Amino acid sequence: MAGKKPRIALVLGAGSARGLAHIGVLQVFNENGIFPDIIVGSSMGAMVGGIYACGADMVMLDKMISKIDTRTFFDVKIPRMGFVAGKKISSLLDLLTKKKQFHELDITLQMAATDLLSGQTVVLQEGSVAEAIRASISIPGVFHPVKKEGMMLVDGAITDRLPVDIALKNNADLVIAVDVTFTEDRSIEIKNVLDVIMCSLDLMQKRHFEASALNTDFLLQPKVGNFASGDFQKSAQIVEMGRQAASEQVNDILAAIKEITR
To answer: Model-level pTM?
Structure first.
């Protein structure tokens, strides 16, 4: 008699446009009957994971992103706490998450953000999913921070780029992490202010990533190192890199799931 279905935790890391590779990973998982019980995301990983948890079709999301000009969602203004006010992106997130609350979801969803006032990682898992995503993707100096319950929340990548430690607290039987930052093919090219900020955040998190990676059962690293942080117009190629990375390990993951259920 087979055992009960193992609890699978999927950790989706930060990486700006490179994080679109998470869409490809989820597509391949769905095609092979791998459905995570827990999703923990940081920054772009929080965005893709949150949208998925709210019931979005990953194939349709891929097609939608490839056809829209993401620049239209950046409401640039004279900076006070960030160049982008975030109202347009918030409206898009409301649409993609169907304005769902965390308690309405069928799976456990957690997102990492950073509280500027305390300097600590904050795990967002209550209230509006769209608002939590908005907080987790708020690159300091680019997006206005999200003020919530006495906190000033910004990008989760500052303190936890690949939040494996958060996933481990959920008593998962299998932890799968997807890193889109520290890939072997990584190529650093500084062209603009966003690249400077994102590269700085990457350097801050290198040691933490190396420690986190050791605690995963499977680590997927799509070959997106040659894509820049702002390469959203290359979404189709980035998603395909995610598909390739997942396809390379999917049989091993299925075998591990089968072994746990024995």
So the answer is: 0.89
In which residue are the tokens 């869409």 written?
23
Which residues, given as ranges, of the chain have pLDDT below 50?
Answer: 1, 72-79, 82-83
| Residue 142, amino acid | V
Q: Which residues are catalytic?
A: 43, 155
Beta-carbon contacts of residue 136 (< 8 Å; ≥ 6 apart): 41, 42, 43, 46, 47, 111, 112, 113, 124, 153, 155, 156
Q: Phi-psi bin for 190: left (phi > 0), alpha (psi -120 to 50), beta?
A: beta
Torsion of CA 133, 156, 234, 176, to 10 degrees: -90
Alpha-carbon span 19 to 17, nearest angstrom: 5
Q: Among 195, 178, 115, which residue's Cα sits nearest to residue 148?
A: 115
Convert the pLDDT of each residue in 39-89 to its tens digit.
999 999 999 999 999 999 999 999 988 887 655 444 444 445 544 555 778
Give me the numbers of helices (H) and strands (E) for the chain, helices first please: 8, 10
C-alpha 185 chain-centroid distance: 20
Cα angle 213-216-219, degrees, rounded to a multiple of 5: 70
For 144, counting Cβ atoms within 10 Å of its Cβ (0-12 exposed, 13-18 middle, 19+ buried), the class is buried
